[in-house]
Amino acid sequence: MLEIKAKVQPAVATTAAAPSLYAEHRKVYPKAVQGTVRRVKWLILALCLGLYYVVPWLRFDRGPGAPDQAVLVDMHNARLYFFWIEIWPQEVYYLTGLLILGAIGLFMATSLFGRVWCGFTCPQTVWTDLFMQVERWVQGDRNARIKLDAQPWGFGKLVKKAITHALWLLIAAATGGAWIMYFADAPTITRQMLEGTAGNQVYFFFALFTATTYVLAGWAREQVCTYMCPWPRFQAAMLDENSLVVTYREWRGEPRGKARAQGIGDCVDCAACVNVCPTGIDIRDGIQMECIGCGLCIDACDDIMQRLDRPRGLVGFETWTNLAASTAAAAPCAPGPERQRAGMAARRVPRFIRARTLVYLAVLTTVAGVMLGSYLMRTTLTLAVIRERAPLFVRLSDGAVRNAYVLKLANKLRDETQYALVLEGPRGLTITVQDAPLDAQGHPLIGSRADGITQWRALITAPPGLHLPESVGVHFRLLNAEGHEATSTGSVFLGPKP
Amino acid sequence: MAQVEKDSLTGTDTTGHEWDGLKELNTPLPKWWLYVFFACIAFSAVWVVLYPAIPLQGATGTTGWTARGAIGGIVEAERARQEPMLARLRSATPAAIAANPELRAFALAGGRGAFAINCAGCHGAGGQGAQGGFPSLADDEWIWGGSMEAIQATIQHGIRNAEDDAARTSMMPRFADGVLTPVQINDVAEHVLSLANRSTDAAAAGRGATVFAENCAACHGEQGRGNRDLGAPNLTDQIWLYGSDKASLVRNIGYPRAGVMPAWAGRLDPATVNMLTVYVHALGGGE
Fold it and tell me: What is the CATH number of domain A381-494?
């Protein structure tokens, strides 16, 4: 189990000035790093940003009169297009399902591999990474940037800073612009935006997402993760002793000291891991809320260890269970290669199959199954019957009783079909539909406009002398040209108390 | 006050506040966050100047913006958008509107709204009428006619409306005021019941037939089938505005009641009257 190690410090009472309640911002200057984790991060960055910028430009032919953009949220016409899938507003539960899948997927990934979302795929991380790279190209690496910031303002500094911010704004504008394209036809809206003819709403959201990208990725960076994002605060509930987290193998590194010193651990206290950290923390202090689990310190440390001809992995993705086992196995050994081997030998394959991961997997499978099932059984024709309640029923001059219904026929396809409306209910009831023609059998023929809803008003009449209970069930069946039922909906027929 | 104490477990400064032995750790808020608060306060100050924020009548901001003004603009724009359609509705007859699917759909939607505002108070939300002489517009019985023209005329001029000369008027005499004796009224009520085979006193009904022929048939017809030109309702069907039981009949022969409907031609524009006509006609009883 986890062992909470507390650094017990003596209670010191000093007479210095009262501590400030507001912390100064300490700028982080992450150093460039090469290695496996960094390569994976670049790959994921390219994939995520590529998808984000390119997807709105993908075309998908839906026939005439329909948008040909593969992924489009059409707010004005209330349709959501995803390749061959078209979602109506009343099917927004698919979106709910996706959000549940996203949340549970995040929980599961976290309980298995720690904060991989934060470290590799979170938009905040991805765009910050890109912005940092731009900064590096223009202003140089960590030391150069620190020096530049310390310099008094001059022409050279001004140019470098201006280029950095101009490039940031350019990327931010592309980001804000791409966001708009998910909500409007990409080529059209791009042309309109360049011509200055897009609406105020478009420019507002463009400016909003440009500004947030620029501020969050250029200025706020790790402050977002530490102070604004709720996820680091409650991810502790998903992590346990079998989750992989970025960890410093203290049992191997301590006591840290100069490389040539005798009787000390493998950590040479070079601060490479600290210098590359995008949130400016020291991984050797143990697991911390600020750590986004990006693993760049692993690459940094591996590089140093390789140069010193020592085994890699002084910092690595490790579970607390393995860490405890290694610590126990390494304890009897003196610092050196033997201690390293003993500690590493005590490690076991992490337990990925655990109660919580199984629960997450079950929820994921269930939700995905329900969504898939509901999509496969999704009907393209739905009939909603709304009984008019004012009046509940109308008594006619000959004593007949009549009920009125509003029929809403929704057609999710792009062609129009007519259906014969057949009423199922007590014998003697007759149905008429206002404005509807009759077919050969005398049934009203109703249809719905393509990709829309058409409303009909139906009247059901019970002739005088037909003794019915106060309320009887009736069924509205729609038959297609072959006489097969296309859809049906139930309702009730009300009359006076018998 | 200036005593700074470090918490022994975490090594963090305390704020110096202590409650029952519990000491509050100082976890400082980043300064930029404090500045965001200041920026919000500055924003609100600007807002108070620009927009109506002071709860006093007439206290508008320097921009002069009001919620009423904003919605007014939207309403104006919508009116302008509907105007071509309304112009067509104004010039067309209700029958022509009903024959054109586009106009009919617009008229049904517009008529529904106009009905809810102007008519539902008496005739009910669905035109079902109400007790006390407000006739149902959803059934197939019409006192003054259920054709498009008749409905339009009724809406335009009203019924028994003294302010409009074109309004149709009918007045059933108060037969209890010395015209008929109570026995005669009883007999004629039995006769009216017998028209729908509901009489329980054949002798009285027989006597009442004579009284009916002399006093009632002029308006309600020999067979009691009514006369729409005179607004005399059909007495042979099952729809009764003031009740169908004998006591109600006796009362209504002796002291008849008659409802009044206002004229709408002056209050609503012709397009709205036409939309209402089409809507009422489509409620279920249009002829």
Answer: 2.60.40.10
